[in-house]
Amino acid sequence: MFNMKPPFRMMIASNLTDGHPRNSLELMDELRPLYGTERQFTREVVESHLQSLKAVGIVRDDEAEVDADGRLLVRYAITDFGRDKLRSSL
């Protein structure tokens, strides 16, 4: 009937549970098969979700670099609190 996908923000956090920090572009590459056709699937939206997840302690900054266009690329890692929250929401 309906093809229900998990909430986009939840999947962004979930993709970090393997312990490998990622930036917004890397997360977009991973999530493209599931969300790539949606209007919300933009770098700005992914970065906004990451900032929201950071604000509530689910992810944290890990490291940063500057891309070829001079934009800051921050890698995010999941926190223990974030891992626990994801576990309890499943």
Largest sheet: 2 strands, antiparallel
* Number of helical segments with 4 or more residues: 4
- N/C terminus separation: 22 Å
Average pLDDT score:
94
What does this structure look like?
With 90 residues, this protein is α+β, with helices and mostly antiparallel strands. The chain has a single domain (8-88), classed as Arc Repressor Mutant, subunit A (Orthogonal Bundle), CATH 1.10.10.10. It is 47% helix and 17% strand. The chain has helices at residues 8-14, 24-35, 43-55, 80-89; strands at 59-66, 72-78. The protein has a two-stranded antiparallel ribbon with strand order 1-2. Helix 2 crosses helix 3 (43-55). It is globular, with a radius of gyration of 13 Å. The protein starts with 7 loop residues before the first helix and ends with a helix. This is DNA-binding PadR family transcriptional regulator. Keywords: DNA-binding.
